[in-house]
Specification:
Domain VWFD: 148-330, 616-784
Organism: Ciona savignyi
Keywords: Disulfide bond, Glycoprotein, Repeat
Helix content: 10-25%
Shape: globular
Largest sheet: 8 strands, antiparallel
Structural class: alpha+beta
InterPro entries: Mucin_vWF_Thrombospondin_sf (IPR050780), Ser_inhib-like_sf (IPR036084), TIL_dom (IPR002919), VWF/SSPO/ZAN-like_Cys-rich_dom (IPR014853), VWF_dom (IPR001007), VWF_type-D (IPR001846)
Protein name: VWFD domain-containing protein
Length: 895
């Protein structure tokens, strides 16, 4: 090593130390270590320690290595930045073992982490309907398809079967189809929600009064007060038909159960609002449609409408699912400002009350269910009407979602929502987790098919059920009914040649063989009457039962069979003559339009689209706004390096893309500074490319990377189906081909066309984005910061009006794009970034936010000119001119 590192200064230092410490051996060894470590750093490795000379005694299980890895394998699987590949001397784990809490263990002995808990190998936990086992430091889970749950709660909040969230904005009395059967199946059902204006409150608020459930032509209406009506007559509970059953399960919930197809839970009599939970059985995947989506695990197409295409505009989407003609409905979306902005005086109280979702006892559920959407809904509702019941409704919905994942807790007292717990009467007791099956004598007698789940409310004590009269009695005291006659327990009747005895509310019959006499059913007589509801171009895609004889026949004109009413012209036309609608405009028969990478054509009044699998795109921009490959959006803050995307062990192409954030404002606001991509990651052929703002992109001729420059972006291409698109600032887009589907991980998710499981750590999904983000840190950093509920303008109040006025360009110049891409979340992010980026980069933060929306509009075929000399101007050089939509593959001298 003498030719590489001059030993003279180390020799002199060694003499001083040894003399100073009186010949102490430790000082000699320290000096020698310093010299040979410098040798190792320069690439010269000398095994200088010997028995009797500076020998190192390692803890049990470890061995000394003069050139061990500086990035050891650990059970946690934490990523390290090991680009320099320096080795270090010291005690290391033997090959093929992993470091865990200071010990070296086999991979099979590595524990797993979920939330704040550590689980031993072979431990098992349940995630919805799947079971996960800890194996080799990772969670290995079954992949059963679980039931889907659609929720409506609060003032106007909806969550689809696939987990997409949106808010309805209508200001007139309207009924909408929440869910209906779709495709070929043995059952026809439709669930309609009726919204009416609340009286005495602000104009945009809605009160859901009732639900209409139709199964195989039979309709019942469930009113918000708990009454159930069939053909305008109230019926006694339980109400049972051949296709479905309605029953009271607690004092607060009713259930509609339809065999093996769907289960409906309705919360009634809560401030004249209705919380509704529709559980679609797993065999209904792709066989439902409506405001609740199509239940195919893909959130991006949940706004599919009866005209055969997905609509980004919520108002346009919801209007196509109207179940009736809404009087005075506006022709365009009645945009309403967020109530917390309009009524800012209510915001502090909303933050204090809704903030309880972040504290115990709700805190224990954060790893399972993301609380942020519920917090946002609570803020919206309480700001619009500052009464505690608005928040308690959202709290109750979150608690019920947690209970369905096995997390049951008492929350009402801590949240000051005791007012929602009515006094239990007739011998009933309160329970946060009452059983929902066989809760009454009627349900037992009718043998209603049921899937057990937690529901809150007043219920009967253990061993008791609700009688027909509404009081709690022992199960053995339940009577039975036959042909309308009541039988007490132990009483019996004859059924053909069998004796049936009443026992615990059920008939127990002997099993004698009885001869059966042949009977014929009477046929119905068909009467020609005018249909009560005319089929139109708008409604022809909705399911229609066979015409039945109405109570009062009315003669009149209607379209012939095979024709429908075109409401625009008032004429009867063939179905093929109906126009298609998308993005606020009409398309004639045969016209085409592009939707992402697919082409859609108007055929017979419906859209017929190609079914190509589009490449996955993950976006990271501004103050760490992340949109995963599967479309899930979230954000967090912390200056650190994070893995955006990397290949999994079963991916034949090894790569890693990481992003480095630096602080750019208050409240934990961070912006990306550089992007690093490694191909052949973890192999001897590893190649690294780092893109740093302000620095020129340099790639060697024989590299596995290639660069092209188009518009404002740099594209980095590889031959493994991974491309980076970078704006040379704070916006990075990772694009991957379908071959990587389900074989990637990181902040960008796993690209399996299911956005509900994108928040994943090591093999296991979590509801906490901060836990997920921390697991993808490279090296040691501070914990990520949750900035979802932070208002960047609160700490900079003088910037709010400026930020809102600047970001208002999204509402004006981009109006043509609103039907394709919802601008509202981009507006909120723009205001946040523009306020919070207060360390000199506010203009860049603003321009990046607007450009992110503009780029998404470009993907959907809308290209507004929005840059001006006063707003994010672009100075083009080399005789080039600015254009909002240029080719991503420009013609160059090279190609």
């Amino acid at each position: 090593c003498k030719d590489v590192v001059d030993p003279t200064p180390f020799f002199e230092s060694c003499k001083e130390d040894v003399c100073f410490y009186g010949g102490n051996t430790d000082s000699l060894c320290t000096s020698m270590s310093a010299y040979f470590r410098e040798c190792a750093r320069r690439g010269v490795h000398v095994d200088w320690r010997q028995k009797g000379r500076c020998e190192v005694m390692c803890p049990m299980g470890m061995i000394f290595d003069h050139c061990g890895s500086s990035c050891p394998l650990t059970c946690s699987g934490r990523e390290y930045n090991c680009e320099d590949r320096h080795c270090i001397d010291g005690c290391h784990c033997p090959d093929c073992t992993y470091l865990h809490d200071g010990d070296c263990v086999d991979k099979s002995s590595c524990p797993c982490q979920f939330g704040d808990k550590t689980y031993r190998p072979k431990s098992k936990i349940r995630r919805d309907c799947n079971q996960c086992v800890c194996a080799r430091g990772k969670w290995i889970c079954t992949k059963n398809r679980c039931d889907g749950v659609c929720r409506t709660f609060g003032d106007r909040h909806y969550e689809t079967f696939d987990g997409a969230e949106y808010s309805m904005r209508v200001d007139q009395d309207c009924s909408y189809i929440l869910a209906r059967s779709s495709g070929v199946q043995d059952i026809s059902f439709q669930i309609v929600i009726e919204n009416l204006k609340c009286t005495g409150v602000r104009e945009w608020q809605q009160c859901t009064r009732n639900l209409a459930v139709t199964v195989n032509g039979i309709t019942v209406k469930l009113l918000s007060g708990g009454a159930v009506v069939h053909k305008d007559h109230e019926v006694r509970m339980p109400y049972v038909t051949d296709s479905f059953a309605v029953e009271d399960v607690t004092s607060q919930f009713q259930k509609v159960n339809s065999c093996f197809f769907f289960q409906l839970l309705i919360f009634f009599n809560f401030n004249l609002k209705t919380r509704c939970f529709i559980r679609a059985k797993n065999n209904m995947c792709g066989l439902v449609a409506g405001l609740c989506g199509n239940f195919n695990s893909i959130q991006d197409d949940d706004k599919w409408a009866p005209d055969g295409i997905t609509h980004e505009d919520v108002y346009e989407f919801s209007s196509l699912w109207q179940a009736n003609t809404c009087p005075g409905a506006p022709r365009s979306d009645p945009k309403i400002e967020n109530p917390c902005k309009v009524y800012s005086i209510n915001r502090p109280g909303a933050k204090e009350l809704c903030g309880r979702l972040k504290s115990p006892p709700f805190l224990q559920c954060h790893d399972i269910i993301d609380y942020q959407p519920y917090y946002d809904a609570c803020m919206y509702d309480f700001c619009s009407l500052p009464v505690r019941g608005m928040a308690c409704s959202v709290f109750a919905t979150y608690a019920l979602s947690c209970s369905k994942q096995g997390m049951v807790f008492e929350w009402r007292e801590a949240s000051s929502c005791e007012v929602t717990r009515e006094t239990c009467e007739d011998g009933m007791i309160w329970s946060e987790c009452a059983k929902s099956c066989e809760a009454s004598c009627g349900a037992i007698h009718e043998a209603i098919p049921c899937s057990e789940e937690c529901v809150p409310g007043c219920t009967c004590p253990e061993g008791q059920v609700l009688s027909y009269e509404g009081s709690c009695i022992a199960v053995q005291d339940c009577p039975c009914y036959f042909d309308g006659e009541k039988y007490l327990p132990s009483e019996s009747h004859m059924l053909d040649c069998n004796v049936c005895e009443c026992h615990k509310g059920k008939w127990e019959c002997t099993d004698n063989f009885c001869p059966v006499s042949e009977e014929c059913k009477e046929n119905e007589e068909f009467v020609k009457c005018k249909w009560e509801e005319q089929i139109t171009c708008f409604s022809m895609h909705l399911p229609h039962d066979e015409p039945t004889k109405p109570e009062h026949c009315i003669s009149g004109c209607q379209c012939k069979e095979g024709f429908v009413l075109d409401e625009n012209s008032g004429e009867c036309v063939t179905k093929e003559g109906c126009p298609c609608v998308y993005g606020g405009r009409s398309y004639k028969e045969g016209e085409e339009m592009r939707k992402n990478c697919n082409t859609c054509q108007c055929v017979g009044g419906m859209w017929t689209c190609t079914d190509k699998i589009c490449q996955g795109e993950c976006h990271a921009y501004g103050a760490t706004h992340i949109t995963t490959f599967d479309g899930h959006y979230y954000k967090f803050g912390q200056d650190c390096e994070y893995v955006l995307a990397k290949s999994t062990e079963d991916n034949m192409h090894n790569f890693r893309v990481s992003i480095t954030n630096v602080p750019c404002g208050s409240f934990g606001t961070v912006c990306s500074k550089s992007v690093t991509m490694i191909i052949n990651y973890g192999t001897p052929d590893e190649e690294t490319l780092t893109l740093v703002r302000g620095k020129r992109v340099e790639i060697s001729r024989n590299s596995g990377f290639s660069a092209r420059f188009a518009g404002l972006y740099v594209f980095i291409d590889t031959n493994i189906g991974v491309t980076l698109q970078w704006d040379k600032g704070t916006h990075i887009i990772v694009k991957i081909l379908g071959q990587h589907s389900g074989k990637v991980e990181g902040l960008c998710g796993n690209y399996d066309q299911n956005s509900m499981n994108d928040l994943r750590t090591s093999g296991l999904e979590t509801g906490d984005r901060l836990v997920m983000a921390e697991s993808w840190q490279i090296g040691m950093c501070k914990d990520p910061v949750n900035i979802d509920d932070v208002d960047g303008c609160v700490g900079n109040p003088d910037r709010r009006l400026w930020a809102e006025s600047r970001c208002n360009v999204l509402k004006t110049k981009f109006a043509a794009c609103h039907s394709y891409v919802n601008y509202e979340p981009y507006y909120e992010r723009c205001v946040f970034d523009t306020c919070a980026c207060n360390t000199g980069g506010e203009c860049e933060c603003f321009c990046t936010s607007i450009a992110a929306y503009a780029q998404e509009c470009n993907r959907h075929g809308a290209h507004p000119y929005w840059r001006t000399q006063d707003m994010c101007p672009i100075q083009c050089d080399g005789y080039r001119i600015y254009n909002p939509c240029v080719s991503a593959c420009p013609i160059t001298c090279d190609n």
